[in-house]
Amino acid sequence: GGGGGGRGAGAASSRKQATFAKFAEVIEEPAESPRSSSTPARRSSLSDASSRSSGVTVTRNSVTEGVANMGRAASLEANSQGQKSRAFPRAQTPSRFADGERSDGFSAVVAAANNLKGLICKALKRVGQDDLAQAESLTAALAELYIKTPDQLRTALDSEDVLGQVQLVLKGLLLMAVRAELKTHASAAQWRKGLPSKKATGAMASPLPRSFEVIRADVTHLSSIDQVSQTFRARLFLILRVAGGAEDEHLVKEYDGFPLDAHGVPTFRPSARWYLNQISFSNGRSIETQESKVTVAGSDLQLIKRVEGEFFSRFELRSFPFDAQDLTITISTHCATAGPVPMTYTVPPSAEFGVDTMNFAYSDVWELSPSIAAEVTTVGATKRRFCAVHLRACVSRCPDFIVLNVVVPMACISLLGVTTFTLPLKDVQDRIAIAVALILTAVSLKYVSSAYLPQISYLTLVDRFVMGNGLIIFLVSVAHAVMSLLNKSLTVGIDSVAKAETDCNNKTDCDDSWTWAMSTNAANVDYGLLIFAFLGWLSGVVWFAVKWKRAENTPSASGQLRESTRRRAAKRAQHDDQEASMLTDSSSSLATMLSDSSAPVSPPR
Known about the structure:
Elements: H1 2-27, H2 38-54, E1 56-57, H3 60-67, E2 77-78, H4 104-126, H5 132-144, H6 150-158, H7 160-169, H8 173-194, E3 210-226, E4 231-242, H9 272-277, E5 279-281, E6 284-297, E7 300-312, E8 324-333, E9 343-346, E10 352-355, E11 366-379, E12 386-397, H10 400-418, H11 428-450, H12 461-500, H13 507-551, H14 563-598
Parallel strand pairs: 3-9, 3-10
Antiparallel strand pairs: 1-2, 3-4, 4-7, 5-8, 6-7, 8-12, 11-12
């Protein structure tokens, strides 16, 4: 009996080994060979044979794990001895998740298959092939090799036994792209493992407004002031203070990222370094950060930032070339005032603002004011607003260059047009030729003056002066043409009157009198036009001089005084102080003299 049992057990073991060998022959068939219609029947017959011989039902996943070591571990379902097992077709296999029940393992398998398909799509994009149908065909081909997840594909690529079959599906550069995507997938999976598995269900923390005081702002290296592109370059040194920030446990943290709690939920309590990184310059371009740090000053925190770059600023050019401009640097933030991490700016009365005027390289073109005007406001294209601070430095233009190169030549050209009335009336062709030449010269000067300005839709002061003088030359040329027509009509009238007066005793004297009278009237009209044109030219020059004088006392758009106005006010105040001191000295000396004269004089001994 014992021997029979041993021989029975040995026979069953040998039958199992033969069955697994036959399964190995089936699985190791080349993947690229077409599946014949006899393959399912062959596998079904093998499964029936193994079931009848050993009494154990072996699923496809268990075969894959036992032979190729590539699939998931599957369970072996034990049947009672002597019961015959049948291999059900795929459509008739009884479902383990009946009555609407969902299995976590099944969902994981489906998600893993979708991940493999997405991984193949990304690899195809790496090699320039964005074809969903091709990705589905490759995924199906890998499924024939029992590769359905990225982890199984990574195992297959690391196995020398299966690598050859995988290379028949993933060829050339696509194989390299798949390896790169597998590395990315592994890194993402490792990161996800580090996250907590459960999130806290607590309520979100209420917003905590943070106020930052702008206590210092220095503008240095001011250069490249360009009114055509309306830009300038500057270097800004900025210090923001958080009162009592050194005692706040959240602000003093060294972490500059957005804070998360132990469950991965944002706490909305960032550090001062995070706030420092949120400072931006809304009108800046190509901003280079040279220094950015957080320091402790007693119980306060100081956020220090030093930047250099190009800034946009709107130039008001109506009074060009006697204009004063506000060079504005806008300090803003990425934190909305009504957001989860609100951030606001304030300017205390003790704030120190200044501009470096000693190293200003454009002092021959602009006069730079040493003070800065600060204004707290909000910016934003929609209802979502962000707190900001406008720092404005005032510069006023030195107008001598434009006056000497545009205004004076234009005034001389128009005056030459007025002097054409001094030519004889009979030489009207020369008058008109000179006037036309002067008009062309005025047009060329207008183009020269436009080169100093952007494409604006209003007239500047120099534009009005140039166009006014050009209008004078144009009216002078029109007057010459009218005078020529009048002269011709007067000549024709004189000839007709001379022929009509046949009964005149002294015909020659009559003709001469008519000719003299008519020529005298034409000359008077010519002189009157000369005086009128000269007065028009002189009024234009005087108007320009008055505008120049008034513009010297006009502040900038933000109300800042020009540097020249400041100097004149300082000189006037100094002069008034000197006069007051002299008056005080004279009054004190007079009082001393009066006191000496009223004192009793002692008699001489």
